[in-house]
C-alpha cells in the first residue's frame, strides 16, 4: 500500500517479509492433526497446568520484574549461573533484544541459508542489514560463515540443531567459529531444539568460557508451552546486563513465570517426552526412507522430508491435507522440494506414514 504522507516507518521496516507461520486449519476437517510447528504432541507437564491455574487467581498483581524464581529453577536444573540468564517472551524476544542492543544502521547480522525466519526480522527491526551465508548440504558451513564476516558484522546466529533442516554441527565446529570471531562480534547459539540432541549442552560450556557467546533456549518445544511464550538467553554478564536495560519490566506474565518454573522442575515429564520422541523420530525417518523419500538424520523433534522436486512435495502436502494432516512446507526457507514434519504421538506418526504409503501406492 502507498505510504500516507509524512508518517513513515524507520528504514528497513517495510523490507521485512511477514513471518509465515504454520497453518492450523484444513477446510472440511474439524480436528486436523497438526504437525506443522514442532510442538510437543503430549502438551505441557500437568504440573505446569496446575501452576498456571494457581497463578491466574493472583493475576490482579503485577508479576516479578526480575524473574528470580524462574531463573533459579532453570539454573538449578541445567547447572547454569542464574545471574547470567535473561528471560523473554519466547526466545523470539531474546533474539529481538540482541539485535536491538547490538546491531543498528550500517551493521550486519549474519545467518545461514535456511536459517530461522526471526533472524532477518529482528535484524531489520533494529535497522541493521541481514546477511545470508550459504550452507553445505543443509548444514551450517562454518568456513562460509567465517568468510562472510566483515568489519560491519555484529551478530552471527546459528541454530543447532537447525530449523527447518534438523541437522547439527559438532561442538568442535562451533568452537572453531567462536575462535574466528572478530572483537566486535557476538555469536548466538540458538538452542530451541537442544534438548532433543543427545549429549549436547547447547553451548553452555562455550558460553561460560568466552565473553562473546550467547545461548538461547525455549519452553515452546520439549516443554510443550509454545502458547505460553517463554524463552531465555544465557550469556556473559555484560551481555545480560545490557539486554536487561531494554527488556520491559513485566515482559513475562505471572502465569508464564509459574508455568515455566513448574515445567522445568518436572524432569520426569521431559525425560518421557524425549524418550518417545527419539523412538518415533527414528521410526518416522525410517518409514519415509522406505517410501523413497529422502530425509537427513534428525537431532530435533521434526524431520525434513525431501522429495524429488517441488511438484512432488506439493502433491504430498495436498495428499496429507486430504487425510486431515497439516505439515509445514518450508518454501519461505528456500526448501520448496521439502516438507517439515513434526514428530507426533506414535499414532500420529503412523497416520502420516499410512497416508504417504497410500499416496505412493496410488
Ligand atoms: N529458534 C528456532 C530455531 C525456532 O525454530 C524457534 C521456534 N520456531 C524459535 C527460535 C523461537 O521460539 P520461541 O519464540 O517460541 O521460543
Topology readout:
Layout lengths: L32 E2 L11 H11 L11 H11 L6 E4 L1 H13 L5 E5 L5 H8 L3 E5 L8 H7 L4 E7 L11 H9 L6 E5 L13 H6 L3 E6 L12 E4 L2 H10 L7 H12 L1 H24 L3 E2 L6 E5 L3 H13 L2 E2 L11 E5 L3 H16 L1
Parallel strand pairs: 1-11, 3-4, 3-5, 5-6, 6-7
Antiparallel strand pairs: 2-8, 7-8, 9-10, 10-12
The structure holds 4'-deoxy-4'-aminopyridoxal-5'-phosphate.
4'-deoxy-4'-aminopyridoxal-5'-phosphate binds next to helix 3.
Q: What does this 3D model show about the protein?
A:
The chain is an alpha/beta fold. It folds into two domains: 20-43 and 268-361, Alpha-Beta Complex (Aspartate Aminotransferase, domain 1); 46-265, Type I PLP-dependent aspartate aminotransferase-like (Major domain) (Aspartate Aminotransferase, domain 2, 3-Layer(aba) Sandwich), CATH 3.40.640.10. The protein is 39% helix and 14% strand. The protein has helices spanning 46-56, 68-78, 90-102, 118-125, 142-148, 171-179, 204-209, 237-246, 254-265, 267-290, 310-322, 346-361, and strands at residues 33-34, 85-88, 108-112, 129-133, 153-159, 186-190, 213-218, 231-234, 294-295, 302-306, 325-326, 338-342. The strands form three sheets. Strands 2-8-7-6-5-3-4 form a seven-stranded mixed β-sheet, sandwiched between helices. Strands 9-10-12 form a three-stranded antiparallel β-sheet. It has a two-stranded parallel ribbon with strand order 1-11. The radius of gyration is 21 Å and the shape is globular. The model has no long low-confidence stretch (mean pLDDT 96). It binds 4'-deoxy-4'-aminopyridoxal-5'-phosphate. The site of 4'-deoxy-4'-aminopyridoxal-5'-phosphate (PMP) has 12 residues, from α3. InterPro entries: Aminotransferase_I/II_large, HisP_aminotrans, HistidinolP_aminotransfase. It comes from Gymnodinialimonas ceratoperidinii.
Amino acid at each position: 500500500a502507498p505510504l500516507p504522507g509524512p508518517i513513515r516507518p524507520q528504514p528497513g521496516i517495510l523490507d521485512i517479509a511477514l513471518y509465515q507461520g504454520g497453518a492450523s486449519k484444513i477446510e472440511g476437517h474439524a480436528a486436523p492433526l497438526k504437525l506443522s510447528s514442532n510442538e510437543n504432541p503430549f502438551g505441557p507437564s500437568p504440573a505446569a497446568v496446575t501452576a498456571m491455574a494457581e497463578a491466574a487467581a493472583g493475576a490482579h498483581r503485577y508479576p516479578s520484574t526480575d524473574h528470580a524464581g524462574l531463573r533459579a529453577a532453570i539454573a538449578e536444573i541445567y547447572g547454569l549461573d542464574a545471574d547470567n540468564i535473561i528471560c523473554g517472551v519466547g526466545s523470539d524476544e531474546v533474539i529481538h533484544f540482541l539485535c536491538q542492543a547490538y546491531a543498528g544502521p550500517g551493521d550486519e547480522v549474519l545467518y545461514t541459508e535456511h536459517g530461522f525466519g526471526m533472524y532477518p526480522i529482528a535484524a531489520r527491526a533494529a535497522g541493521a542489514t541481514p546477511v545470508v551465508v550459504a550452507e553445505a548440504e543443509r548444514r551450517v558451513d562454518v568456513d562460509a560463515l567465517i568468510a562472510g564476516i566483515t568489519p560491519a558484522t555484529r551478530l552471527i546466529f546459528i541454530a543447532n540443531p537447525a530449523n527447518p533442516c534438523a541437522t547439527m554441527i559438532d561442538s568442535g565446529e562451533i568452537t572453531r567459529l567462536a575462535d574466528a570471531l572478530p572483537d566486535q562480534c557476538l555469536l548466538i547459539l540458538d538452542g530451541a531444539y537442544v534438548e532433543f540432541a543427545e549429549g549436547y549442552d547447547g553451548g553452555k560450556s562455550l558460553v561460560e568460557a568466552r565473553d562473546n557467546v550467547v545461548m538461547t533456549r525455549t519452553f515452546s518445544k520439549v516443554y510443550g508451552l509454545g502458547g505460553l511464550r517463554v524463552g531465555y538467553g544465557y550469556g556473559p554478564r555484560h551481555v545480560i546486563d545490557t539486554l536487561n536495560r531494554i527488556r520491559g519490566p513485566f515482559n513475562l506474565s505471572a502465569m508464564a513465570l509459574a508455568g515455566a518454573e513448574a515445567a522445568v522442575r518436572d524432569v520426569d515429564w521431559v525425560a518421557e517426552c524425549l524418550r518417545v520422541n527419539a523412538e518415533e523420530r527414528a521410526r518416522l525417518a525410517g518409514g519415509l526412507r522406505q517410501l523413497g523419500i529422502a530425509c537427513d538424520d534428525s537431532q530435533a523433534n521434526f524431520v525434513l522430508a525431501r522429495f524429488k522436486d517441488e511438484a512432488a512435495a506439493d502433491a504430498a502436502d495436498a495428499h496429507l491435507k486430504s487425510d486431515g494432516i497439516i505439515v509445514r512446507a518450508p518454501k519461505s526457507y528456500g526448501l520448496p522440494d521439502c516438507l517439515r514434519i513434526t514428530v507426533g504421538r506414535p499414532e500420529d506418526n503412523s497416520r502420516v506414514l499410512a497416508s504417504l504409503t497410500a499416496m505412493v501406492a496410488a
